[in-house]
Amino acid sequence: MDKQILIDCGSGSLLQLEKAGKSYKSIDTVFITHTHPDHISDLIPLVQALFFTPGFKRRKKLLLVGPKGLKSFYRGWVPSLMKLPDTFPIEIIEIEEKIYFKGFSVFSTRTLHSENSIAYRFEAGGKSFVITGDCDYDQDLISFSHKANLLITDCSFPDSLKTRGHLTPHEAGLIAKEAQVQKLILSHIYPTPYPDEDRVTECMNVYDGKIILAADLMEIEIR
Ligand SMILES: [Zn+2]
Ligand SMILES: [Zn+2]
After folding, report:
1. Which residues of 95-113 are buried (b: 16+ CB within 10 A; e: fewer)?
2. Which ligand minimizes its atom distance to the CA of 34?
3. Residue 40 three-state SS
4. Please, what are the domains in the chain?
C-alpha cells in the first residue's frame, strides 16, 4: 500500500499532521466517516492549503471518499468559502460498500450514530484494520470487524455516562471480543470528570486482548 491516506479530517488535523512529520501535500485520499464538524472541519483548510501554499503546485488528484451526503457537503460549503482549485482535480466518491485500490481494499458499513455515519475496514497484504468512526453497539459492526488485526473504536464516554450514538468501554470491549480482533484502540475520548485511563480498566472487564488508549501522534504498526 503506497498511498498516503487520511481518515477523517477534524479540527486540528493539519497541525497534527505537521507535528507528526507527515506532509499534507502528499495525501492522496481522505476517507470521511461522517460529516459532523469534529470529523470534517479541516477538510476545507486542507483543500485551501493544497491550492494556495506558496511555491507548491499540486497536480495529482485528491480523492475524497465518504458516505452519502459528502458531495452535497463539499459543494455546499467549499465554493462559498474559497476559489476552487484549478491546478489539480478533486474527485468525490460516496462509497456504497467497497472500493478496490491498487494494493488495498476498503469496505464500509453504516453505523448507529448519524444519518450518514459509516465505519471503514482496510485490507492489504492479508492484514486488516477497522475504524468505526462514531457509532453505537450493533451486531453488524461485530461481523464487519471479524478477526481484524486492529480495531479502532469510538469510546466517547465511560460506562457510567452511556450516551446514545456512542460506545462505552464495555461495549467497545464486547465488540472486540465477539469480533475476535487482535488489538483494540479506544479513541474519540470525550473529556469527562473521570480519568481517561479508567476506560481501559472498564474495557478489560470484557475483552482480554491488547487495549490501547488513543493518544495524539501515536504510531501503530499492524503486524
Ligand atoms: Zn459524530
Ligand atoms: Zn465525533
Report:
1. beeebebeebebbbbbbbb
2. 1
3. helix
4. 1-94 (3.60.15.10), 96-223 (3.60.15.10)
Check: pTM over 0.85? Answer yes or no. Answer: yes
C-alpha 137 to ligand 2 mean position (Å): 15
Which residues are designated catalytic? 38
* pLDDT tens over the chain, length 223 residues: 678 999 999 999 999 999 999 999 999 999 999 999 999 999 999 999 999 999 999 999 999 999 999 999 999 999 999 999 999 999 999 999 999 999 999 999 999 999 999 999 999 999 999 999 999 999 999 999 999 999 999 999 999 999 999 999 999 999 999 999 999 999 999 999 999 999 999 999 999 999 999 999 999 999 8
Q: 36 alpha carbon to ligand 1 midpoint, in Å?
A: 5
Q: Which distant-in-sequence residues (6+ apart) come within 8 Å of 193 by Cβ?
A: none
CA of 189 to the centre of ligand 2 (A): 9
